[in-house]
Design brief:
The structure holds two protein chains of two kinds.
Chain A (H helix, E strand, L loop, with lengths): L1 H26 L5 H5 L6 H10 L6 H13 L13 H36 L4 H15 L2 H15 L12 E4 L2 E3 L4 H34 L2 H9 L3 H39 L4 H11 L2 H29 L5 H4 L2
Antiparallel strand pairs in A: 1-2
Chain B lengths: L2 H20 L3 E6 L14 H10 L4 E3 L5 E3 L2 E8 L2 E6 L13 H11 L12 E8 L2 E6 L6 H5 L30 H4 L7 E7 L3 E6 L14 E6 L3 H9 L5 E3 L6 H6 L3 E16 L10 H10 L2 H8 L4 E3 L21 H10 L6 E8 L6 H13 L3 E8 L1 H10 L4 E6 L6 H9 L19 H12 L3 H18 L3 E13 L24
Parallel strand pairs in B: 1-10, 1-11, 14-15, 14-16
Antiparallel strand pairs in B: 2-3, 4-5, 5-7, 6-7, 8-9, 9-10, 11-17, 12-16, 12-17, 13-17
Helix pairs in contact in B: 8-10, 14-15
Classes of the chains: A mainly alpha, B alpha+beta.
């Protein structure tokens, strides 16, 4: 176990190093940050002087070494736009994104298991066909379109739910302010969560369905049925447990993807999270913030995947984590 | 009715009346971006000026029909060729409680001179002289016609508040482009609103300044919550669903929807930002021939672009100066005649055409990439083959500085609201010392035109200036120095009870202090 963790930490460091290098390499192609910092009629001379002050005229290696040196001391640079340390900016935006991901995850878990199991048990029922049809639609419509459609229907036409932002939020701890403690907060998080879930939910319904159908054909389920165990118990206790392994594997990877999809969802809903912040940073060529974001997201990927591997061991005793370290 | 119930009813009535009288009027505003800083002189941008007009007051400001209106200056007079004397309003207090006097104007002027973004506008000015507590002289090095134009940029800062050092030893007055400064987070002006809460990129909350000097203003808004909503459809949806009261800009695709929606008003106005293409004579030999440039102007159907691509949301242009500017010449009309264009090409010896490259941004101006595509296909009609590349503005501007393509798109708004500014930046002979022609990617150079600009820049008689500036526009038109397309319109959406049409203007800084919300 310990050896495994040590190995994972080294992997994470390597991944982070590569990410920082790539992020640094692309920043030269993102455009000129000075253009976003000064007015249009400011002379080239003044811009050059500012460029010099910001150290943008140094060679790539010089800039990278300076960045890496600071990063090792926990300083990922200062955002041009927010004028604060990039890491602080991201940490302030992180709770909003995590709450959104949490909301979407609740919807995915809450719906994908019953829907997946139902469509597996009754593959020919009309409802199953409708669910499978909708899941195709869900997968094929881009998130931003789903989001705009929902805003149009539920906010503009029906007036049930607010169209943008986080609404009333309650401070919990540090930078963490939550949506889940006020009615207004709940109303604000519903649409973005559904939009974010819309891309993953069909995937999980299909995955659970496919796995479930396979398990239902297996010997032990038939034996259990023959033994007279109640169908409900067979489906949800005996069969479902064995479908979860691949679901967790895919789920772990997809949580990372979901963080990426927050960029679109947050932009449409003006959700003040780090996905929206990232897109804005790209538009403004706020390079320190871009690099810091990529590193933080890389870190989240590595951590979630490590946790998934650990859970793997708990769900399936045949996977021996202690030996994975060797 | 017993005495008791009557008493209760009366009490309830009084409570209802008084609560109506003291009800907080909150206006929720959604723009596409929020101000980058609270420092009024850090960045010269629309967002900064919008903020400045809410929290500060200028010496004078523009009215809707582009006249000057007294604000912190009560009156002004020219006392000699290079001096304008301003009489300042008495009894004005800053939000901090400090009194506003002439020394604040002097201090603000010195600070403007330190600002990279604003000092260009103030280049002709040498000094502010304090005559007495409520009188200042604004001095220029040469006779200068745009003293009042420039005075609209003098927003009195609270010199006592912004002087001294912060706890960590930094000068409170310093202007920092990147990184933290006192002025970017703290604010004290004389304006109708104070900032009570600000989370950058999320929202800014403004509270009415109860001791605002302008008691004649009927503005009755107690609180403004400004939220940036970047996405066009979301911003429109927020207005239509009633989540916000006032939005800007309204994208061209949603103009119809906002106009037809119940309870919501659409206000549009011709803007002052001209969209043009420049033809680089250094890169393409053919562009040196005025006939070729005219042919291109004749081949581009700018009325068609406004009609189909902009959906009418623009004003077709034949010159840089919009109507209302001194240089605007109504006799210059848009040219579109394909036959004539072909004839001109043939006359110039290019009947078979040639190939060029073209670049345009895709997120800077309204529909910029689609406009460029349309122009490219229009040019193919006169056998000019266009290799078009569009890109985000962040990548476009470095390319523009390199003059990386044969035809490049540029939009321009004159910070001085004056015609000479267009020529100075877009079509004057490029000269890195004076900064002239900084955005002249066409390398068009005409000494006669530059001479007319110089005349206009020192002539203080408006009639003579107008003559020179109109002659200049006519010259650029005749020579087809650039291809004018249109002036982008401005559009705001607001709930009916906002009376928003009374406070908006072509300069795109609504005077929220004067906003009257009806019941």
């Amino acid at each position: 176990m310990f050896a495994y963790l040590v190995k994972r930490v080294f992997q994470a460091i390597a991944v982070m190093f590569v990410i920082s290098l790539i992020a640094f390499a692309i920043q030269g192609n993102l455009g000129d940050p000075l253009r976003e910092l000064v007015g249009q009629s400011v002379s080239e001379e003044v811009r050059q002087q500012l460029r010099e002050e910001l150290g943008l005229n140094d060679s790539f290696l010089q800039q990278y070494l300076r960045f890496a040196g600071n990063a090792l001391q926990g300083d990922l640079g200062t955002s041009y736009f927010f004028k604060e340390p990039a890491l602080d900016v991201i940490l302030k935006k992180l709770p909003a994104t995590l709450e959104l991901v949490f909301g979407a995850t609740l919807i995915i878990i809450g719906l994908s298991v019953p829907l997946g199991v139902y469509t597996a048990i009754k593959p020919n029922a009309l409802l199953s066909k409708i669910i499978m049809g909708l899941s195709i639609v869900g997968i094929s419509i881009p998130v931003f379109l789903t989001a705009i459609l929902m805003i149009f229907v539920f906010s503009v036409e029906l007036g049930w739910l607010p169209s943008f932002g986080r609404g009333d939020i309650v401070p919990v701890w540090g930078y963490w302010e939550t949506n889940f403690l006020t009615a207004d907060g709940w109303a604000h998080i519903i649409l973005p969560s559904i939009a974010l879930a819309s891309i993953m939910l069909p995937l999980f319904v299909r995955l659970i369905r496919a796995e479930m159908m396979e398990v239902l054909q297996s010997e032990y389920v038939r034996y259990a049925t023959a033994k007279g165990i109640r169908p409900w118990r067979i489906y949800f206790v005996h069969a479902l447990k064995n479908t979860l392994l691949p679901v967790i594997t895919v789920g772990g990877v997809q949580i990372g993807t979901m963080v990426a999809y927050t960029i679109l969802t947050e932009t449409v809903f003006q959700w003040p999270g780090m996905g929206f912040m990232f897109l804005e940073a790209v538009n403004r060529v706020d390079t320190p913030l871009i690099v810091a974001y990529l590193i933080v997201v890389g870190f989240i990927f590595v951590v979630t995947n490590t946790i998934v591997d650990l859970i793997y061991g708990l769900v399936n005793p045949t996977v021996n984590i202690a030996r994975m370290g060797a | 009715m017993t005495k008791f119930t009557a008493g209760v009813a009366t009490a309830a009535l009084i409570a209802a009346l008084s609560s109506a009288a003291y009800a907080e009027t909150t206006v929720r505003v959604a723009y596409d971006a929020d101000p980058v800083s609270m420092d009024p002189y850090e960045q010269l941008s629309g967002g900064t000026l919008q903020l400045n007009h809410m929290v500060f007051d200028p010496l004078v400001r523009w009215t809707k029909d582009l006249q000057f209106e007294a604000r912190l200056a009560e009156s002004w007079e020219q006392i000699d060729e290079t001096t304008m004397r301003f009489k300042l309003r008495e009894g004005v207090k800053f939000h901090s409680g400090n009194d506003f006097t002439a020394k604040d104007i002097d201090w603000t002027f010195d600070r403007i001179k330190q600002s990279d973004d604003f000092k260009g506008i103030f280049a002709p000015f040498v000094d502010v002289e304090v005559v007495d507590d409520y009188t200042v002289d604004l001095k220029t090095s040469e006779p200068f016609p745009l003293v009042l134009h420039t005075a609209t940029y003098i927003f009195a800062m609270d010199s006592a508040y912004y002087s001294g050092q912060t706890d960590d030893g930094k000068d409170k007055a310093e202007i920092v482009k990147h990184g933290d400064s006192f002025a970017s987070r703290n604010i004290s002006g004389t304006g109708p609103f104070t900032v009570t809460e600000r989370e950058q990129g999320v929202r800014v909350v403004f509270d009415r300044n109860d001791s605002y000097w302008d008691t004649e203003s009927e503005g009755n808004v107690d609180e403004i919550v400004l939220t940036p909503i970047k996405e066009d459809p979301t911003r429109v949806a927020a207005l239509l669903s009633g989540d916000v009261d006032f939005i800007a800009p309204v994208p061209p695709t949603d103009l119809d929807r906002v106009e037809k929606a119940d309870g919501v008003n659409l206000i549009t106005m011709p803007g002052t930002r001209i969209i043009t293409f420049q033809m680089n004579q250094d890169r393409v030999e053919a562009f040196k021939d005025a006939r070729v440039r005219q042919a291109i102007d004749y081949a581009v159907n700018n009325a068609g672009i406004v009609d189909r691509i902009m959906r009418g949301f623009g004003t077709v242009a034949a010159q840089a100066s919009p109507e209302g500017y001194l240089g605007y010449d109504a006799s210059l009309t848009p040219r579109y005649d394909l036959e004539k264009a072909k004839a001109l090409m043939e006359e110039a010896g290019y009947a078979d055409g040639f190939s060029i490259t073209m670049m345009a941004p895709n997120n800077r101006y309204v529909n910029d990439d689609r406009i460029a595509q349309a122009v490219a296909s229009m040019l193919s009609q006169i056998n000019i083959t266009v290799d078009l590349q569009t890109m985000p503005k962040a990548q476009y501007w470095p390319k523009f500085d390199e003059r990386a393509a044969d035809m490049m798109m540029i939009g321009w708004h004159a910070d001085t609201e004056d015609s000479a500014n267009f020529h100075q930046f877009l079509s004057a002979c490029p000269d890195s010392d004076s900064g002239n022609g900084q955005y002249n990617s066409g390398a068009y150079c005409n000494a006669e035109a530059d001479a007319l600009m110089d005349v206009a820049n020192t002539e203080t008689d408006p009639a003579k200036r107008a003559e020179a500036l109109q002659k200049l526009e006519g010259m650029l038109y005749a020579e087809a120095a650039f291809i004018p397309l249109h002036w982008q319109n401005l559009a705001w959406g607001a709930k009916d009870n906002m009376n928003a049409e009374d406070i908006v203007n072509a300069l795109n800084f609504p005077y929220f202090g004067d906003l009257v919300v009806s019941e």
